[in-house]
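Input.
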Amino acid sequence: MSKKKRALESLDTDSRQKAFPSQSKDGKESSPNIRYENLPLVVLAGRPNVGKSTLFNRLLGKRKAITDAQPGVTRDPIEEECELLRTREKICLVDTGGFKLEREGLDELVVARALAYIQRADLVIFIIDVTQITPEDEEFAVFLRPYAKKLLLVVNKADSPERDALVWEHARWGFGPMLFISAEHNRNIDKLEEAITARLDFSSVRQAEVEAADIRIAIMGKPNTGKSTLLNALVGYERSIVSPEPGTTRDIVKDHFQYEGRGFEVLDTAGIRRKKKVTDNIEYYSVTRSIRIVSHADVVVLLIDAEEGLSDQDKKIAAFAVEAGRPVVFALSKWDKMPNMKNAFEATRDRLRFFFGQMAYAPIVPISAKERKGLDKLMSVVISLYAKANKVIETSHLNQAVAEWVKETPPPASPSNRFKLRYAVQSSVNPQRFIFFVTRPEAVPESYKSFLKNKIRLDFGLDGVPIQLELRASRRNRQRS
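Output.
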């Protein structure tokens, strides 16, 4: 066997291990995707600034909820699968917005969302501050009395034994045994996990093998482009708070839904404004998490306000997705408000492709989430892009195609930028990444790289998907040097 053939087979094996992480090196299938069903629903509830989000992050073992001294940071309920480290039991943990007596702006919607989760909960953790009892605590305790059988009173910010005596001030509500903890300092969290486990029934929890993981969709865009409205339309109920006020969504709101027999996880992200307009710490954290979520998504749906048209910020958001190698769908939001003119969509589509330049390959879909129009088309495009982004190409087929491309369009032949393509391999899927081994990587012009990317899309059915291309010096060339 020639050295070149052995190298190709070795590279092909590596690429398949990256493309199919469920396969081991000997080709045998490892454990399939597992989904846990019927997890007990545990809801963290209380007034603002008692430490709900801090406890949420502590139980999860990672920073999922935004925490800040400013009251009322959490708005939409945040839902995460959580394994209790002490007992190894799994629960569905929910962080809710704070209960307020005096409400303004979005407060009514925030409280309504929290109360809806309390009604559905298997266990409500009523969190209060050891240092003070407020009228909001008193009023909330009255509201929660009908749920006493599924309520656990937790007194937070008991940072040291010196504060333990203050806990008994809260016993007058008669909610049964209390726990005093410090979410920030990890005090008595093990006892809390044991108490949670003791109050729940895990007999219905089961592991369900699924043929394929849920397709994860990240909804992104500027503020007020309809991201939360789209999430609600996809999941079929009012999951995200919708308001004309910019910046309503702060944390990453996620939910699941089924479409044509396939599971989807949809992520509603905070609206991303220009950097110089972000002056608030909370918005900074929200935007940062929105950008990070791109690398965890399978497909990005970028909402562009059809009335306002394309902005520089839309281009920057799209660039985040392209850099991560994720497929992007341009969704023209609020299309129902556009004038009913002949060829209106075609004109808008052509303008978008002109201004986006190198992202002209990305599909464009007009939608109205409010009117539930265009959603079937959007989902069809998402499913198609997901399949293309995860397509694996045999190395032998790839190199046969490369030989044809070189024959049809040879590389530049001038002495200063002469190079030869030796061979190529697909190194990963989603992102679709290819490695080309050449004699002189530094001599390959950007125009020829673009040519190779376009040929990969065209010949292997990867239209609509970003292609990442890496150039490496061929071994023969390295040995000579």
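The two ends are 25 Å apart (CA to CA).
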